[in-house]
Amino acid sequence: MEKILEVKDLNISFHTFSGEVKAIRGISFDLFKGETLAIVGESGSGKSVTTKAIMRLLPEHNSEIKGGEILFDGKDLTKLHDKQMQKIRGHDISMIFQDPMTSLNPTMKIGNQIMEPLIKHQNMSKHAAKERAIELLKLVGIPKPEIRVNQYPHQFSGGMRQRVVIAIALACNPKILIADEPTTALDVTIQAQILELMKDLQKKIDTSIIFITHDLGVVANVADRVAVMYGGKIVEIGTADEIFYNPQHPYTWGLISSMPDMDTDDEELYSIPGTPPDLLDPPKGDAFAPRNPYVMKIDLEQEPPFFKVSDTHYAATWLLHPDAPKVEPPEAVKRRQNQYVGTKGGK
Amino acid sequence: MAEKQKLLEIKNLKQYFNVGKPNEVRAVDNVSFDIYKGEVMGLVGESGCGKSTTGRTIIRLYNATGGEVLYDGVNVHGKKSKRQLKDFNRKMQMIFQDPYASLNPRLKIADVIAEGIDIHGLAKSKQERMERVYELLETVGLNKEHANRYPHEFSGGQRQRIGIARALAVQPEFIIADEPISALDVSIQAQVVNLMKQLQKEKQLTYLFIAHDLSMVKYISDRIGVMYFGKMVELAPADELYKNPLHPYTQSLLSAIPSPDPISERTRKRRNYDPASHHYEDNEPIEFREVTPGHFVLCSEKEYKLYQAQSR
After folding, report:
1. Closest-CA residue in chain B for A196?
2. What's the whole-number mean pLDDT along residues B45-73?
């Protein structure tokens, strides 16, 4: 498969009054053409910071890319000038934000907001851009686009506004679409519609999507591959099936068992004890060690490298080391593993 | 539970806003259901369907436009002396959705929690009051030292625990939890839900659990009510509702929840709900009918027969 984006050993810090917050501590991943990569993790794990770094939207006064590369189209995005970046942003890479209520300009007609990238990036005439805007509104499923194009954001409901935001993001047929919790603020029924729409559009224009969310149900619905982040690092990455049915990292185990599925009955939900690490002073070994029920001595001393589970599946936990003792994953995870073996013959 | 005892009876509850004006909103329109002692009743629906308004009207944060809420046989609404109201307020408490907005930022945690204790005069001395606060903090998994801090020093999950401690302070029998976990991270959600479940067992509480996260609602609830546009369209025991949803809106809602399971997600078929699909005639009585014992659906006579045949 063709790589469209490569992130290599990215390190990002924020300078605050209390010191340097090491928000991203060396992450690497690839994004392939036409795939959806979901990034999951709790708040503060660094998922939004990663995508903002790709878009170069981090505040300049207090953030710093300490090292690493973001390769797109042979260019390192971290080294581009503002002017060069403006050409890419909204054209090759665009973004859908979490809150449709605040990501549109309330004083501009939505038609003009959709036309903006078309006129700026594709040198379209106003007339042509407007026609394209109507086309885009139709594409994202807004009824009566000829009338709606002249309306203001407050005349749209939350779900409809998110569709407009998607229309803007898709205006220039971007190669990469970054969706930062695009459905978190929406109702389940509307969420289902938006997810379907995104999958549909992806097929039509062959975009790669980076999808950030903390809802594992949504991940299962949209993702081809999943990266799990914890404490500013990727701790496990693999295909959706590998992460959901054969997870290896204790943090992924915790995440999966803390969500009730339709079969969970009276047993107590598993909850990950403790709190996320303080990235002002990141722990020496595995950042998850203090909350890890399977903690070993080495976890506290040395950071685990990535161990290969399969060609597509890697996890950073010492439990995968050949010398590590065999441990039993939680009940919910075992049930999933069995189910997987049952349906797919173990693969 | 052999004989279930009704704790709360909600009869034809109506809550209209802007009555008589062109923009009249029927947020809750003729809703009736019972809540039994010691059970968890879940209430689901999309935003704007009136589930929060139902909760808030039950606890009399709004005065009902019509209908009755009977708590242990006594009407909550209607004319009440301050004393009587105070009694009700002690029995019923509420946990709010947003742990950031529901704690007074200028009060110390001890005072946030003890406010109810003070109002109802539940502590005889300062010392007893503080002991009670410490005890409550420990119940919800925080510790003594937290009593002298301010809300901004806590994370979302911790704040929600404080909200729970505050609700428990007056030893209520019935707690309305209005989306208590929606604002929290997944891993923290499990902690709060476990805590609520454990407290329910220890203190024999009754909950009305309002949420839009259906998998969590199914996990915690004994029975679930589904609301749509101010009306309750289906009410059934939790398992029954998921196995045999009858009303087309419930079916559409269930088909919209993504489950953390890629294999089943790939084959998922989503169903849309169109209110016109019922083809009701003009004067057809649409009522809340009991299709199988404990399973109620809002339907016409014709649909009722159809549903009964389906459930056999």
Report:
1. B270
2. 88
Q: Which residues of chain A have pLDDT under 50?
A: 345-347
Which parts of B169-271 fold into alpha helices (H)? Answer: 186-203, 214-220, 238-243, 248-256, 262-266
- Nearest by CB: A189 against B188, B193, B253: B253
What burial letters (b/e) apply to A60-79, b meaning 16+ CB within 10 Å?
eeebebeebbbbbeeeebbe
pTM value? Answer: 0.82
Tell me what ipTM this predicted complex has.
Answer: 0.73
* Chain-chain contact of A192 with B260 (C-beta, under 8 angstroms): no
- Mark whether A79 and A140 lie in a shared domain: yes
C-beta of residue A338 within 8 angstroms of C-beta of residue A264:
no
- Predicted pLDDT of residue A277: 83
Give me the domain span that covers residue A206: 3-223
Residue B298 lies in a domain: no
Structure tokens at A323: 């010398």
Which domain, by its residues, includes B102? 6-229
Cβ distance B190 to A269 less than 8 Å, yes or no, reads yes
DSSP state of A224: S
Nearest to A260 among B46, B47, B219 (CB): B219
DSSP type of residue A262: T
Say which CATH number the domain at A185 has.
Answer: 3.40.50.300
Report the distance separating Cα B10 and Cα B51, nearest Å.
14
